[in-house]
Input
Amino acid sequence: MTQATEQVAKADLRDQAGREAAIQVRDVGLGQALRLGLLGGITTVFISAIGMIEAFAGRIIMQPFLTLSFTALLLIPLVFGYLAGKKPPEVEGLTRARTGPRNVLAGLLAGVLTGVLTGLFVLVANAIDLRDIFIAISPRLLNILTFDQSPSSALVLLVLVGGVLGALGSLVAIAPGRWRRPLLGAFLWTLTVGLLEGVFQQVLRGLRLEAVNSFLFSPLGGLEPAGALTIFVLVFALYVVLERRRGSVSARLEAMSDRERRRTMIIGVVALLIVLAILPQIVGVFLSEVLVNVGIYLLMGLGLNIVVGFAGLLDLGYVAFFAVGAYVTAVLTSPSSPFWAPQLTFWVALPFVVLVAALAGIMVGTPVLRMRGDYLAIVTLGFGEIARLLFVSEWLVPYVGGAQGILSIPKVTIGAFEARTPPQLFYLVMAFVLLTIYVSWALKNSRIGRAWMAMREDEPVAEVIGIDIVQAKLSAFVVGAVLASFGGAIFATKIGSIFPNSFEILVSITVLVLIIVGGMGSIPGVIVGALVLVGLPELLREFSEFRLLFYGALLIYMMLKKPEGFIPAKERMRELHQEEMLQDSWLRETEPYDRETPVDARGRDPDAGLI
Amino acid sequence: MATLTKSIRTRINLERINWITVVFWTIGIVSLVLIVWGSFNSITSGRLSAAQWRDLIVFGLAQGGVYALLALGYTMVYGVLGFINFAHGEVFMSGAMVGFFAASALDDAGMWDNQPALSLLIVLAVAMATSMLVAVLIERVAYRPLRAAPRLIPLITSIGASFFLQYSFRGLFGAGIKSYPQMAALEGSFTILGLRILKSQSLVIAGAVLMMVGLYLFVERTKTGKTLRAVAEDKEIAALMGIDVDRAIVMTFIVGGAMAGAAALLYSLVFRQVSFFTGFFPGIKAFTAAVLGGIGNIAGAMVGGLVLGILESVGPSLVLAGFNIPAFTQLKDVVAFLALVLVLILRPTGLLGERLAEERA
Output
C-alpha cells in the first residue's frame, strides 16, 4: 500500500469510528454474574472442605471477633460482587459500557448465590456425617460457617450477608477511579497490617515507637477497631493526595537528563545499602531469620532466572545444584564428614564449591544440548531426582552419610566476626545476594546475555545468525549452577547439618513459582517474588500448610492471565503480547487527528521496534 | 526457502555438533559396557536362581502394565496438543484415592469378599469416572484457553495443576497413607507353564492387556478414533474437514483419564497403598515409558510401559548388583530415570519411532 492510500483508508476508519450510531452500548451481563456467584460458592465450599477456614480461625485480624476465617468468608462475596459489577471492557470506538443499577443487581446476585451455595453446603454437612471421607468437615468448621447459629437461620444469614457484600463490591467497582483507588488501597493496607501484625509490631518496636504499637494493636492479637480505622483513614487520605500528582517513578526518571538520572540512581543505591545495614537491628531475630531464608531462595531464584528467564531452558531439577553446593561445603568444612574431612574454612572451600557446581552444570547441560523445551524439563527433573536418590541411598553412606546426613558444619567467620545468629547471617546472605544481582544485571546486558535471549526466542534462527548454541546453553547452566551452589553453601552453614530430604523437588518448584510470579527474566520481579512467596508463608504459620496448593493455583493463574509476571521484563512482555500490542497500536492510529503520535522521552516512537 | 534454511542448518550442525556427537557416543558405549559387565557379573555369581529371575520379570510385567496404561494418557495428549500433561499422574492418583473410599465402603458392606468380581467392577467404574472427570476438568479450566500459547506455557500450567490437585486431595482426604482392603479372592498364586504368578499380578497383567486391546480397537476401528487420529495429525486440516477439534481434544482427555482410572485400580491391587503423593512418581515414569516407546505413538506407549516395568524390576538386581552396590533395590527409581536420560540422548525418537511432524523437533 502506498502512503497515500494508507492515509485514505485510515481516514475512512476514523469516520466510521466517529459516528455515534456505530458505537454499541454494553451492559453488564447477569448470566456472567450468576457464573461468578457459582464460582464464589464453589470457592467457599472448597476452601472450607480442604481445612483452610478452620486453620485460619486462630488468627485475629481485628478485635473483637474478626478472625482470618471470617475475613476470608466475607471477602469472597465482596470480590465476586466486585467482579460481577465491574463494567465490561470497552473497545475504543466500537463499544461503550454503561453503568447503573444493573451493575449493583449483578453484584447482589453473585453475592446471594455465593451465600446460597455456602448455606446449602452447611445444611448437607449438618445432615450427613462426611467426616470419614472429608476429614476437614468438622463440627468446628460448621460452627464457623454458621456464625454459631442453627443451620437454617445460618442459611438466611449467609444469603443476606452475601447479598449485601456482593452489592457493596459492585458499588466499589462502578465508583469513579479517583474514589475507587483510594478505597481499595486503604482497604488492602488495613488488611495487610492486620494480617502481618507481628511484622509491623516488631518494626515499630525496633523504631522505638511502642506507643503507636499499643494504640494500633490489641494485646490479645489483631488490630484494635480504632487502630484499623486510623490506618484506613490515613491511607485513604494519602491516596487522595497522591492521586492529584500521578506519574510513575520510571516516567519521571525518563524525563531526567543522563547526569541527573545517574545521580538519583547512586543516591538510591546508597540509601538502599544503609537501610539494609540497619535492617536486622530493626526487625529483630525472627524476621532476620525469615529474611535469611528469603535470601537463600533469592540466590536460587536469580540463578534459575538466568537458566529459565534469560536462556529459556526450563530446568525442573534445579535443586540438584543447590544440593551440590550444600554437600561440597559440608564435606570440605565439617569435621564429621564420613569419608574425607579436610576441615577447610568456608572461604577456602568456596572456590571448590564453585568448581564442582560448574562441573555439575556441564554434566547436566551436555546431555540436554539437543533437547527441546519440554523434554529438557523432564530430563532435568530426572537428574534432580537421581541426585536426591543417590544422596539418600545406602550406597553413598560412606561418602555423604545417606539419610543421616552430615553434621556439625562450622559457621562462617571473617576475622573475629562469626555469622551465627540470624542478624549476622543476614549480612552474609545479603552480600551474596547483592553480588548475584550485580552479576545477573551485568550478564543481562552483555553479549552472552543477548545470545541467551535470542536463543530463547527462536533457537534455529539464533543459530543461523551465528550464535554458538552449545556455548550459550552450557554457560547458562554453569552460571545457574554456581549461583544455586552459593545458596546451598550458605544453607549448609546456616543449618549446621544437611540431610537429603532438604533437597526435594518441591524446592525446585518453589523457585520456579517465584520467578514466574515475579516475571521471567526480570530481576526486580525475582526479588519481589522471593519476598512474597517465601517470606509470607513463613510469617503466616497457618498458611504454610496450604503453601503448595496456593503455588499450584498461582502457576495456573499466571499462565492463563499474566504469563509475563507481575513485574515483567520488557523483552518477555513484547514476546508474549505482541499481537495485542499491535492491535493497540492500530487502535491508537485510528484516534482523532489532533492527537500527536505518542513519542517517548527519548524522542522515539515506542512502537517502532515492534513491527 | 525452507529447503535453503534447512540445508544451512544441516551444514552448521555438521561443522559444530561433532564433539557433542562424540560425547554422546561415548556416553552410549560406556553405559552399554557397564550394563553388559554388571549383568555378566550378577548372572555368573548365581546369586538369584532362574525362578527368582522369572518372578522379577512377572512383577515387572505387572508394574509395566500400569505404566503402559498411564503412558497412553501422556502420549495421546502429546500427540494432539504437543505438550507434556504433567498433571496426568494426579489424574491417576485421584482415581486411586476415590476408588479407595468405594473399596472400603464395599468392604464394610461385606461385598468385597462375597462378590469380588462385582466389587472390582464397581471400584473400576468409580476410579475411571473420577479420573475422567478430573482430566476433563483440567482440560477445560487450565489447557483450553492456552491452545495458541508458546509451548512451555501449558507445561508450566500443568505443573501448577499437578501440585494444586495433590494438595487439594491432601486437604480433602488427609495426608495419611490409605490401605486398600485385602481381597481373599486375590490371595495366593498359580502356575502356568512353570511360571509362578501371584493372582493379583495376573489380574493386573490381564486387565492391562484387555484395556490396551480395547483402546487399540477404539482408536483404529471406530469413527471417533478416526477423528482423534485426524486431529493428532493436523488440527487445522481436521477442522477444515468438519471435525470438531475441541470435542476431539476433550475425547482424548476422556480416554486418557479412563486409562488412568483403570491403571489406578490395577496399581492399588498390587501395591495396596495410596496417598496424595501416589501419582507423582508413577506419572514421571509413565512419561518415561511414553518417551521410551516414542511419544505420540500409541503402540509405543504400550511397549515402552512394559519395557520400563521390566527394566525397573530386573535392572537393579541385574546391573547394580553386579557392581556390589549395597541396598541396590533402593536405586530402582534411579534406573528408571537413567533409562529416560539415556533414551533421550541416544534415541530421542524412542523404540518404535516418534509419530510426530518434523516441525515439532
Q: What stands out?
A: The first helix of chain B runs from residue 2 to 16. Confidence is low (pLDDT under 50) at residues 357-361 of chain B. The beta strands of chain B are 178-179, 189-192, 195-198, 273-274. Chain B touches chain A through 62 residues (CB under 8 Å).
